[in-house]
TrEMBL record:
The gene is Asah2. The keyword Zinc applies. GO terms for molecular function: metal ion binding; N-acylsphingosine amidohydrolase activity. This is Neutral ceramidase. InterPro entries: Ceramidase_alk, NCDase_C_sf, NEUT/ALK_ceramidase_C, NEUT/ALK_ceramidase_N. It comes from the Eukaryota.
Amino acid sequence: YLVGVGRADCTGPVAQVPLMGYANPEQVGGGLLSRLYSRAFIVADPKDSKRVVFVSADIGMVSQRVRLEVLKQLQSKYGELYRQDNVILSGTHTHSGPGGYFQYTLFWITSKGLVRPALSSIVNGIVKSIDIAHENMKRGRLFINRGTVENCQINRSPFSYLKNPASELSRYSSNTDKEMVLLKMVDEDGHELGLISWFAVHPVSMNNSNHLVNSDNVGYASYLFEQEKNKGMLPGEGSFVAAFASSNLGDVSPNTRGPFCSNTGESCDNPQSLCPVGGAAMCMAKGPGNDMFESTRIIGQNIYLKAKELYEKASQEVTGPLSSAHQWVNMSDVSVELNATHTVKTCKPALGHSFAAGTIDGVGAFNFTQGSVEGDPFWDQIRDQLLGEPSNETKACHKPKPILFSTGEMTWPHPWHPDIVDVQIAAIGSLAILAVPGEFTTMSGRRLREAVKSEFDSHGTPGMNVVIAGLCNVYTHYITTYEEYQVQRYEAASTIYGPHTLSAYIQLYRGLAKAIALNATQDLSRGPEPPLFNVTSVTLLPSLSAENAPADKTFGDVLEEVRREYREREVAEVTFVGANPRNSAENATEHNFLTVERYSNISSSWRVVLNDASWDTRFYWSKGSRGQSNVTIEWHIPAGTGPGVYRLRYFGHYKKKVSLLHTITVPFEGSSSAFQIT
């Protein structure tokens, strides 16, 4: 094959934009722990024009808006080379990235609308990573390996899982998929290019009290692998690219100590995730660490160590033709043939009451509980007044789900949920990547993989490695099995196209697999094109206005100085007169907010040893009154840091009023005093 890899920043605004994932409007960005990247991999056939592009981006999920804008840019740059059928865009599902990049109204509610700078950072970052991969294509080889990852997952809806048929449950030893599938890439001289790992786990080691933008546990795994391979480079630099992509993580949590009542400390591992005092709102799962930062590192490191072992031992070469199959489908109206006599249908999208309950990884609002199969008259009445009552048809279609939001019947100012959804498979020789538009639960994913594998088998392409790539192309929440759906925990309440959603997807992906196996992808119907709503920006974010420094100070001045001396494992900390970090995101795509620098006696100069992409640094922004704000930079000094003289620097932009109507953005910097590490 010809192989190319690329990485580009897609962080976007790290302040004031709500973070996407927990749907908690209080959880807005207030700084940066680690940068977000888009990682792109292109595999091409040297003999013809066939290509496959796989992108894994450190974002909550790929939205339809992101995908349509990326495809538009790719078409204007490359013509018909990169298209909706051969480009897969997947989100890692971090819950600590900026939101606001959606065109459907439901997602505006918790992300304060459509935030153009956040959307642009993601779109431009993805396109740039593909550009870099495109420019770096060289002859190479691919190797696949798989293995079991321990101590990283629990099933967060075990009571739903156990509702699956006993004959099916008995075939599996675990209620999560522990297998990691890894694709290793080298050039023809054996130089290492990169890897993609697929593994099912929610990147929610950082909980919903976090305000620092970061890529969570799988992002930390990428960081460790890339730091190891790009020796001597700063984080985010170097040619080796390691993507840790999402899979069927719907009911899989990294918070391995399980659910406890945060007020009393007792377990709340029950069908409703209820605590005796305080109800569902008190039930939270704990990770393995003492705090969320440590849990993120522990889970991320476990994943990284397994990947490293699989990477080093990967010897099964991937060869064979490239192909891709894609359709747009109206998911609110699919007829599914369950058997010769029985046909069922999917529904217009709707969310059930338990959607509002959230999960043990991030509890919901008010007094909603998981496992609600009956509505609550109080909330139903408020809903009927504000948003309108669901139609009888939709109510009947979704049974036993009590509908909270009938999003498929809500169209103001735009539809609240997508109808048109992408289904897509890309095959690289014996590897078939199923790009799925949401979060399949463990058992849903197993059924889908098995169905696709048997479809390949029965049409003359046996032995395919079938892997699910999650959160691709458009976000449609969760996909549970029919049996799990009956219990209506969070994942089932969020299965928006009704009880037969999974059966519909299995039928559709079988069709794609058959077309690939019979070399008939050109005969697949394209399906109805998704809409691109004519909305460029609708936002409740505060506008960026002129800023001030306190009297007798300027931007970048130190307010609280570092100590003279630190040891390993201590935290060096400095506070500056700051400015809104959004100014920087809107001014430069790849703005670096901070550096840790070490003094070199040999050259009598300062050398940058860390930037803001490092997981050892934290950048906090806090807004004060009268247009003033502070920035605090922390360096959590790791064991093994060389003794010497260091300093912390800050780089920002402030808004300055030059006339009544006109402000300009002015760059500035600040530096701590020098300090010693002993």
